[in-house]
Task: inverse folding
């Protein structure tokens, strides 16, 4: 989709799960069903190969296929953002060119992981990377996974290049998010997008532009309605919808004992809802066994769901 980015990209842009049959087989039929489910639910864009999309566990062949199939299925209806995070600058550039060739609207990049960069090194890396990318760029703050957080002034320095169009924050630190947004106040076109769905409503009420929320894979209407309520300043409705969001967060995402619980719970719920066929999770992780799957089923039963939709 040709997206102008004249103003900040706004709304609910779900980070798609990557439906898999095994470690080397993309479930294209489930991907089609998922994308149609999201578009019908009113989302404002699609974000693929992020943390929820298991990018770092996927082969480059599967990543390429995920880009190609998503853009084909989308048919230009929504802007598509593609995560190109990698330890190799060359591989990030290669993925970005595949995304551009397929018709994606922008790319998203978290800092390279393994060796932790200092802030000057981080800024220098993006000053080298961004000019070599063929699409608009969104910075992705994910300190729990890459060990580095963008300092607000580093974001400002990198965004001196107008090709840098926004920022996704998954730190779950609302003070930090506000600090970056305040630092970027001289860029009214710069999108500030929240990762954790538990504080997306709050961030939009305070001037943020939307959310990249995993739960929207399951119930897109819930998160779209929450965004619309926050954007219009309807605090009563935000508070009402927040109760559903917290119920989902505190049940479906907390069944397992490890850091992978969110992803396993989300994929398991999507399979039980019939949105995707299988909840296969790429190695080194594995889908829930029967006892955990039953807990997810009970968590879904506790929600007011009819015909796979949350009744709001």
Result:
């Amino acid at each position: 989709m040709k997206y102008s980015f004249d103003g900040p990209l706004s709304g609910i842009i779900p980070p798609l799960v990557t439906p898999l049959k095994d470690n080397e087989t993309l479930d294209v039929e489930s991907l089609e069903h998922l994308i149609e489910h999201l578009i019908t639910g009113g989302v404002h864009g699609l974000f693929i190969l992020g943390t929820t999309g298991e990018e770092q566990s996927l082969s480059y062949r599967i990543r390429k296929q995920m880009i190609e199939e998503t853009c084909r299925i989308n048919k230009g209806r929504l802007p598509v953002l593609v995560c190109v995070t990698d330890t190799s600058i060359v591989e990030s550039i290669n993925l970005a060119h595949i995304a551009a060739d397929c018709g994606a609207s922008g790319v998203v990049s978290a800092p390279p992981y393994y060796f932790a960069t200092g802030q000057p090194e981080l800024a220098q890396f993006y000053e080298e990377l961004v000019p070599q990318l063929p699409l608009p760029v969104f910075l992705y703050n994910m300190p729990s996974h890459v060990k580095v957080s963008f300092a607000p002034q580093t974001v400002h320095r990198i965004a001196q290049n107008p090709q840098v169009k926004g920022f996704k924050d998954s730190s779950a630190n609302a003070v930090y998010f506000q600090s970056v947004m305040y630092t970027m106040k001289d860029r009214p076109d710069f999108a500030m997008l929240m990762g954790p769905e538990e504080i997306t409503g709050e961030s939009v009420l305070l001037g943020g532009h939307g959310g990249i929320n995993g739960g929207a894979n399951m119930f897109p209407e819930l998160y779209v309605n929450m965004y619309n309520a926050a954007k219009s300043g309807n605090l009563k409705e935000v508070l009402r919808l927040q109760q559903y969001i917290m119920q989902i967060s505190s049940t479906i995402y907390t069944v397992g004992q490890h850091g992978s619980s969110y992803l396993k719970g989300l994929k398991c719920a999507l399979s039980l809802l019939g949105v995707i066929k299988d909840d296969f999770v790429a190695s080194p992780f594995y889908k829930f066994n029967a006892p955990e799957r039953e807990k997810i089923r009970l968590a879904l039963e506790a929600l007011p769901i009819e015909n796979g939709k949350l009744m709001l």
In short: The domain at 11-234 is CATH 3.20.20.70 (TIM Barrel). The chain has a mean pLDDT of 97. The radius of gyration is 18 Å. DSSP finds twelve helices and twelve strands in the chain.
